[in-house]
Fold this sequence. Notes:
Elements: E1 2-10, H1 14-24, H2 29-38, H3 42-60, E2 69-86, E3 92-107, H4 117-140
Antiparallel strand pairs: 1-3, 2-3
Helix pairs in contact: 1-3, 2-3
Amino acid sequence: MEITVKSKYLKISPRKLRLAVNLIRGKNLEQARDTLYLSHNKGTKMLKNLVDSAIASAKESNSEVNKFFVKTIACSDGPRLKRGKPASKGSMMAIKKRQSHAVLTISDNIVSIPSSANSEKKVEKDREDVKKINSEKKKDK
């Protein structure tokens, strides 16, 4: 099962938002949320809201949130607000205030993540990590 969540017209440039996007690509939802919580960046706050929305959508569809992974996450350009700043000799300097759109797709099937030879090893490693985390949680309870 796949769930897609969008956030549009974010008041941050796509270049800055992509730094935060790369932190959570291919991770478990809970790991992604923790990673975003611990990194201090304007973009991570916006993406944390997006991940929280995806978690709420997964809960609404009566699915277990622990099984979901970030399948795809993309950041694209939004519209630019054009402003001006006075310059010498009566002219104006253009200021472009960039905006972003973010699209997050989560899936409970880890095999559906696009793979290559290197990423298959990462997927196997992530599966092992998830199993360890789940076993530790069971021991804690």
